[in-house]
Design a protein that fits this description.
Helices cover about 35% and strands about 20% of the residues. By secondary structure, the protein is of the alpha+beta class. The chain has 4 domains: about 5-130, Methyltransferase, Cobalt-precorrin-4 Transmethylase, Domain 2; about 135-195, no CATH class; about 205-365, Heat Shock Protein 90 (2-Layer Sandwich); about 395-485, Arc Repressor Mutant, subunit A, CATH 1.10.10.10. The strands form 6 sheets. Strands 11-10-14-15-17-16 form a 6-stranded mixed beta sheet. It has a 4-stranded mixed beta sheet with strand order 1-2-4-3, sandwiched between helices. A 3-stranded antiparallel beta sheet has the order 5-6-7.
Length: about 500
């Protein structure tokens, strides 16, 4: 350090990265520790609090004492020491083995002073630095006796590809979801029937707005099952509210959403997997006339910057993330943002805008403008919220079949894929599921197939033996009418 640099430091005074000490090493360990736990800093020995140089004697002896103090921290702290005139400059570079303690206590820099951390501050510090992962801590509210039911376990086992003959507790322990008879937070979120029982803000809130602001809500939905199910449900909700281009070739109908489905799914997965589950806020999905926003609580994890997005990934919830990867909800580890951008480019749509703050992470997909004459218009837009929804997002609900109860998720794309697959004749459950691209058999059966059977759009070929290996499914007359209505009479 040159004398000019020293004078600049003195002129700025004490602050977050600078501390002045008149003499000696009294409380020096506290200051070094506090800087090490922050972003580093400089301690000037031989300077009063007012910034006046008084100097110190015997620099060589004092250097040895400073080094001894720094080495006595846990773990030892690396410091750089030099003499600039009468002042001894102790530089504490940014450290990489946080947290540091001195004398069994933890200190942190707050403004121009160093303070001892309380128990809660230490805990928060560990979380922020990624030294403790919340998803790995125990969920005291989860009861292995009451919450781990046969139905819950069977669904999870299939998703996680666990052998049918493996004991549930053994499998969960081997997956590090259960330790010492206690369920982890990640396990609770993946095995939840209602995630709010274990994490009051673990749900997802979705809303469709009129126009480009939040003044008027056209529709809102909340999803609060397990994490895996919520991913499917949220993506289905988004797809049901954005425009879809229909391409009909013979009897086969291809549906092409205005935004790539896989990019939307990747953004939803990222929001669910990387959010800060300690936050009292939930994941929020906003659909506007000009954009789709997916907002998750928690900024970037420790060790990541905005420049790293699309290049590397540091999961905030590594246990949850690894299980979602095992369940194939995550395509490739570390590829999320890059994949989203690539998918948007491949589909010819504008790449999403990413906004990061200390407490929020937002992915905003610009919606393409509808070509001239494509937008649906109604004469009752001012009177009906549903009509306004149709006019804004290009949806037309079938008016001729009002008796359809729509118990299945409101995803035109998934439902139409099932009905179109059944149009050609008798098909198996597996063929119908493949047509939707859905991977979870139980979710498909309960939320889609059974609902379509209940609504009378599909029927079984062997209704007296619903579980028969020879069971097939076919369209009813009502189903053909529904499909024809959706296809503008093409299949009626």
């Amino acid at each position: 350090m040159k004398p000019k640099d020293l004078n600049n430091l003195l002129a700025l005074g004490e602050g977050f990265t600078a501390e002045f000490k008149r003499s000696g090493t009294s409380n020096l360990g506290r200051e070094i520790c506090a800087f090490a736990n922050a972003t580093g800093g400089v301690i000037l020995l031989g300077v009063t609090d007012a910034g006046e140089i008084v100097g110190v004697n015997d620099h060589n002896r004092l250097k040895s004492e400073v080094q001894a103090v720094a080495r006595s921290a846990e773990p030892p702290i690396a410091v750089e020491i030099e003499s600039v005139g009468e002042v001894l400059v102790v530089r504490v570079p940014a450290q990489h083995s946080k947290p540091y303690s001195f004398g069994g206590k933890f200190f942190i820099r707050e403004g121009a002073s160093s303070q001892q951390m309380s128990r809660e501050e230490i805990r928060e510090f560990f979380y922020k630095e990624g030294l403790i992962h919340f998803d790995e801590t125990f969920c005291e509210r989860f009861s292995l006796t009451d919450d781990l039911t046969d139905e819950v376990w069977t669904l999870f086992r299939r998703r996680a590809k666990i052998p049918a003959d493996m004991d549930a507790l053994t499998a969960l322990e081997n997956l590090h979801l259960v330790k010492g008879g206690k369920m982890s937070q990640a396990g609770a979120w993946l095995l939840a029937r209602d995630i709010r029982k274990f994490n009051i803000s673990g749900d997802v809130a979705c809303a469709l707005f009129l126009g480009t602001d939040k003044v008027r809500i056209l529709d809102r939905r909340g999803f609060h099952g397990d994490v895996y199910s919520m991913i499917d449900e949220v993506v289905a909700y988004i797809l049901s509210k954005i425009n879809v281009e229909y391409i009909i070739q013979h009897v086969k109908r291809e549906e092409r959403p205005e935004l790539p489905e896989e990019a939307l799914r990747e953004a939803v997965v990222n929001a669910m997997a990387h959010r800060d589950y300690r936050s009292t806020a939930n994941v929020q999905v906003y659909i506007f006339k000009d954009r789709v926003e997916i907002v998750s609580p928690g900024g970037l994890p420790a060790g990541m910057t905005e420049a790293d997005l699309g290049i590397k990934s540091i999961p905030r919830n590594p246990l949850l993330f690894s299980l979602l990867h095992r369940m194939e909800a995550v395509e490739n580890i570390g590829s999320g943002i890059k994949r989203i951008r690539n998918l948007c480019r491949e589909c010819g749509v504008v790449e999403p805008k990413i906004e990061v703050s200390a407490n929020w992470f937002t992915v905003s997909f610009p919606r393409p403008e509808l070509p001239e004459g494509k937008q649906t218009e109604t004469s009752t837009d001012a009177e009906s919220g549903r009509d306004q929804e149709e006019a804004q997002v290009g949806i037309k609900y079938p008016a001729s079949i009002p008796q359809v109860s729509r118990k299945y998720p409101a995803s035109t794309q998934q439902v139409m894929a099932i009905l179109t697959a059944a149009y050609t004749g008798e098909v198996t459950r597996k063929q119908l599921q493949i047509a939707t691209g859905m991977k979870d058999r139980e979710h498909f059966r309960k939320e889609y197939l059974q609902a379509l059977l209940d609504d009378g759009l599909l029927e079984m070929t062997i209704p007296d033996k619903p579980r028969s290996s020879k069971q097939r499914y076919r369209l009813t007359e009502k189903g053909r009418a529904f499909l024809g209505q959706q296809n503008g009479g093409e299949q009626a």
